[in-house]
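Notes on consecutive records. When two proteins share a document, each keeps its own sequence and its own token line. Never mix them. Below: protein one.
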Amino acid sequence: MKKILILTSLLLAIIYGCEEDDYVAPYGDFSSFSWVTTEGDDGEYYKALNEFIGLYDLSNNPLASTWVIPEGVSILNTKFTNSEIDLSPFIIGDGPANVGTKQVNLLFNTPGVKEVQLRNTFSEEVQGSELVDGVWQITKAFTITVFDNIKPSFKVMKGDEEILSVSENDEPSLDNIDSWTKVIIEAGEELTYIDLTTTGEPSGRKWNFTGAKQETSNKDEAAASYFSLGTYPAGFIESTREESATSPKGEAIKIIPLLIEVIPSSKPFELVGTPNMSADGVLSFSVSGEIDTAINQGFTVNVKNAAANFDENIPVESVSINADDATVLELKLSAPTFNSDEIEISFSGGVVTSVDTRTLEDFEPVSVKIELGSNILSQEWASYESEDTNWRRGFVKGFWVGGTNDDGPGGQTETIFFRTTDKASDGEASMRYKFDISKNMRLQGSDFSKPNGIPAGTYFISYMVYLENGNTMKSFRSTLANPSIIMDWDIENIARGEWVEISRIETVDSDIPSGTRFDLSVDTETNSGVTGEQIIYFDDLKWIPLNPRI
């Protein structure tokens, strides 16, 4: 017989303090088998350790009713309220046990899968019952997966050396900080924190660091760098289990019982990586330590622009330390730069010192990477994000291939040009070309200039491409329809098996009308001698306007 739905307010009244004799079944004289729980009626539940479930037998006219309670489960009375934190004072019995009451409130105090059964007998047949020894018997099993408390465990590495290991049973405290392990590192060195937690089935963690450049990290292996001199307690870890349909919420915090002493570095204080010019005109670069003092002297910034016949040193107007990252120095120039410029920076004879008293070493002119600005194309279109069901479109909106696209190995289900989520350099999808180049193939970019067209100008144009290992292609072609521009891309010698950005600069002399196509094609004549199946992925097409220096 169909289970009867009971209002939550009625169920809560039953669980919290209503005696079984107070309940009157509303079904009449016929027999029925039904139940209700505080967690719904699907029969499979997920609880944290020391949580409870209330179950009530709503069967009508049974000869006998029995709850079968397994080991590791305690039986509660009805005297507690929903606000109780500790339910142990309300325990009246423990499993394994058979209970003949209508109502059972069960506390789960050991982890694992628990099966609670409701076994009823009737004098007449009810749905799902079996006739045994003259009575109708039926059993309902309730499966409860009980999650253990989360017990953080981790280790800390200095290079290849393990300097600290904390098990799930260790309970470090600030009260015994004097006995903690101590590690000495030079400014700029890092420690690696490795989460080993398994008990309680955590879904994530958050490292909270003291004295490190990084305040927090969610990674299972987190590298933390230290620059400021001093001695620091390492911090703590928060292990968490997200609440879901199949897991209850859980969390635990454990102190990292480690003292970190940071001493001056014996390594050079020098430029690290590539200097950068932001879109808002800030020239910045990183150094191998936190900066204490920086004076505006010793910097030379050379700016060239061949189209404008410009080649000058632009003075530095001010120097400052980045507010969020003290290993980054920021320079403001006395005149603007343009994203069509070429910029170099050098340093000699200036005063930049680190917090551990080192002086920045001079460096010869190095190129500055210029942030070009924003892509004028729709990112959804340019990264093949919008899925379409039409195989003639390559399964992506805003493009068209046509009937020739069905010659791939999988026919119309796996076409030559095929939107895929197997690989992506941006977003979730990319466009895959998979074919033996036995005929010319063209992916028409019909939504390239929609809705408002594209103005004339000079553009930085780039693709992200991924050529599978074994790909021997030499080129592909992009074609702008109006005005007509053909762009051949040489890919013969770029790396295989990884995403690579390829780029060029093109000048468009007239406005591009709305609806103009930008096509991508693979042609036999530009891939002479290429044989066998070729696989290449395209993603993240960019058109970025370059600002001319006047």
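Protein two starts on the next line and is unrelated to protein one.
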Amino acid sequence: MKSTRSSGMVPVLGALVAILVAFSPGCSGKDDPGSVGGTGGSGAAGGAGGTGGDAPKHCIVSDDCDADERCDQETKLCVPRCTADNQCPRHTGTYCDIPSGECVPAEHCQDDATCGSTKDFDYCSETGTCICIQDDSVPENMKGICWRVASTCQPCSADVECGNSGAFKGKEADCRVFRVGDETSPVCLPRENKGRCPPGMVAMDKTEFPELDGYCMPQSGDCATNKPCMSNDDCTEPSAPVCDLVRQICVAGCSVDFQASGATIGCPPDQVCHATTAGMKAENLERCETAGLFGIGECGMPCSDDSECKGRDPNFVCKSDGSMKRCRPAGCIDDSECEDLKDPNSMFLPWCDVATNTCVTDRCRAGFDPRLGCGTDKTYQDCASQMYKCTEVGTTGEGVCEEKNCIDLGGKEVGCFPGHFCDGEQYKSLLDGSKVDKVVSIPDATPGECVAMDVNLWCGATCQAHTDCANVGPNPEYKDSPSICMDQGIGPSCFWGCEYDQECPSSWKCSSQGLELYCSPDPDLRPNAHGLKTCTEDAECGPGNRCVEPMVNGEKTTMGLEPFKVCECSNTGVCGGNYSCNAGLGPMVKFKGFPGYEEVEHRYCVDSSPCGLKGGSCEWFGEVARDMEGLPVAPILRCGATPDDFAGSTEATCPAIDAVTGLPARRGKTASDRYACVYSQVCLPGYFWVDGEQVCGVQE
């Protein structure tokens, strides 16, 4: 867990990691108070120490040692200072004198109640948190010595050292293994008390520490950085910039909705969201990770004059952002506060420079707007027209408004008229829309320039057969997307093979529409057979098969046709006669994220012979043939295929050659045909109308 406040620790934790190395007891369990050891600190008061694994330094006095060490007078070596009584060795009659860091003779006791009663000792009476620890070195009339209860996150060896004793009614803390820096060690952890935790602590993260459910942990999730906050200055994490002074933990701040007349968000109805210095830092808006945190403040009662705000920040004033006044910078902090300065004759829209809290009316901000989140491709909207963009001048991040080119506008379809290419436009996959490492490159053109297509090439290549178009055109290297001869309403022409929309002129599409391999019988000859093995009862379908209503994309449907039933062969895979059990691609759900995605649950008996003798599958994907009045008359079946990333288990392949065209067949490459067999993929024309006639050409 990431810390939500500044580094550093309370004084007693100043050398916690080093102390744990020298004094930390062993641990053999988590439930029994004695299972974390029971022998007390293992480091002897006069034992050699040193830090970081280096050989201990020789010394005469403690000033010769590091700040977290003292000079042991018996060995004349630097050893770690103690910071808690339980770091002194058991049965030596000593406790920790924290100022010197040495283990010195402790007060003797008979039970917890007698601690603090001996005249010459005041450390227990000052704290009121001592317990009587059994010690074999004390006189026979005594039980042990007085130790102060270890604080939260301090090392321990038994629950009693953390205050789990009858002497401290209501103080529930135990010795448990928890994270300390890069390691885990036994430390004192308090229990939740009616859902509450001590200052600086929060409920245990049960996901990471399920065995510690019911305990409290430092907000940072690490005992090495346990530090209750005392003011907002202790809360340096932008997502939690406000110190809750009651719980002494850093919490998320409130905010103001400038689009709703300055309404406060995240405060009680009678309070306002006062700005904070940390929330007003302009650098928050320089990074998308922190941009959304700009303007976060803390709740409080409304202010009445500027003097009430100076304690929050010398530059803050008492100003109304809505119905109540709050402390905030005197100038602007949001673009909406500059709208009154909009000039209808200016190319620039006014915006707020939060670094100076002033409105800017003669410049624009270049680059992506981090306020919209990481990964955004949206730029600042500081230019008055959507047809203009901000071009940076110098290195200040600001610039001037200039007309957008076709790349800025999104490519040829948005930035150019029909029949053009956009030079420099990046290619995109037809399967998932992802960007491809390839751009449109037109000789003698400038990136962002619309370039008209060659009308003779795209509109004038007449033909009589597919062979007339073979091995020519813009992309002859696409062997599995060959150019073909088709008539799309203005006579037979060559349509050039493609793999990307960017290879086609604007308004034209790279598609396999109409180029699929069909396996439907002629609906005029067999209007009732549909190519599927139809039935009225199970007995017509063979042993183990059922007569069912067909499904398309996970739902029962006949797509407007008269209701009919087909033979399902999911459990047997056998149909008999001229029918074979298909792969079931048609009935399954083909949309990612939907329940049952690519789960083949229903397979039907179909004549799949047009789709290949081995692995071929004739499928109904929901298309229907219609009569002259537009009424559905029969389902249209196509040869199905499974893509490379198919999640199901039943696969289908395409025949090597399309029996109708004689062209090689393959699996589709676009989102719309990824489950289909096709024989090509070409640039389909986007004709436009002139004087009532379809025209293939360039529109200026």
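For the record: The CA atoms of residues 492 and 611 lie 27 Å apart.
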